[in-house]
Design a protein that fits this description.
Family: Belongs to the isochorismatase family.
Order of helices and strands: HEEEHEEEEHEHEHEHEHEHH
Oligomer: single chain
Strand content: 25-35%
CATH architecture of the largest domain: 3-Layer(aba) Sandwich
Protein name: Isochorismatase domain-containing protein 1
CATH class of the largest domain: Alpha Beta
Radius of gyration: 22 Å
Mean pLDDT: 88
Organism: Chordeiles acutipennis (Lesser nighthawk)
Pfam family, one: Isochorismatase
Low-confidence stretches: 1-16
Structural class: alpha/beta
CATH topology of the largest domain: Rossmann fold
């Protein structure tokens, strides 16, 4: 807050209480809202996403600027800025388009297995196939030393993860009621993994828990790879439109074989033969990928 004051402040007198009014500006829009006292850059970004998510092009880089009365114009958000008084901020897209390359390395990747539970078995299309592919992905994660985070949606009513999926060595197996996997415990687990950059995400349902998880993860700056042959819904229409929407936001929709071979990258990799054997034991063609 002292840095903000030195740069010209936020505009008005300090606000009392637990929240501070902030005017959030983007393009031609300006929407008043509030953030907790002491909020920093990350919370401001989250608020911009909640207010303007449909208008923000996730392929671009942005800069957050603060209106400084001293200069009567916007300045780049000062380093270490914390909201302590009423202010006006704006999100400015840079002109350089960002290309999502989708590179994967085991040391910077984590696998998310979402709600592969027993009660979903009769309802989810091609559930047997996505179980087989999910198990193959988890075997690959163990071979390559990749952390695995697993959630179960209301397991008291919907049952635990299906027995075919071996969760041995999973970093976290967590019950939830929220649709997104991005829970405080999951964020804490991610913070414990040094250098994590990419999330490989699979499970059910594509248009609900998978979609909401993916959008929250990219909102936090992580690159998301959704495994199309390990992800399904009750309705193929819901699945198809969810994957199309997610691809348009910059999320990478890919396949399990592509993921595993990208992670080893070279036939001289010490685990290549074992990964190759996993791929050779792939599930039969089910028609699932024709529904992408």
């Amino acid at each position: 807050a002292e840095a903000a004051a030195a740069a010209g402040g936020g505009g008005c007198s300090p606000a009392g209480g637990g929240s501070v009014p902030v005017l959030f500006c983007f393009s031609v829009f300006a929407r008043p809202s509030s953030v907790p006292h002491g909020a920093g850059y990350e919370l401001l970004i989250q608020k911009f996403l909640s207010l303007y998510g449909d208008q923000i092009d996730m392929h671009r880089k942005f800069v957050v600027q603060l209106f400084a009365e001293e200069w009567s114009q916007y300045i780049d958000l000062p380093k270490g800025f914390l909201v302590s008084e009423r202010c006006k901020v704006r999100l400015v897209p840079l002109q350089i388009q960002m290309t999502t390359l989708g590179s994967l390395t085991p040391s910077s990747t984590v696998f998310f297995c979402c709600d592969m539970q027993e009660r979903f078995r009769p309802a989810i299309k091609y559930f047997g196939d996505i179980i087989s592919v999910g198990q193959r992905l988890l075997q690959g994660a163990r071979l390559l030393g990749i952390p695995v985070i697993v959630t179960e949606q209301y397991p008291k009513g919907l049952g635990s993860t299906v027995q075919e999926i071996d969760l041995t060595g999973a970093k976290l197996v967590l019950p939830k009621t929220k649709f997104s996997m991005v829970l405080p415990e999951v964020e804490a687990a991610l913070a414990e993994i040094p250098g994590v950059r990419s999330v490989v995400l699979f499970g059910v349902e594509t248009h609900v828990c998978i979609q909401q998880t993916a959008l929250e993860l990219i909102g936090r700056g992580l690159e998301v790879h959704i495994v199309a042959d390990a992800t399904s819904s009750r309705s193929m229409m819901d699945r198809m439109f969810a994957l199309e929407r997610l691809a348009r936001t910059g999320i990478i929709v890919t396949t399990s074989e592509a993921i595993l071979l990208q992670l080893v990258a070279d036939k001289e990799h010490p685990k290549f033969k074992e990964i190759q054997n996993l791929i050779k034991a792939s599930a039969p063609e089910s028609g699932l990928l024709s529904k992408v």
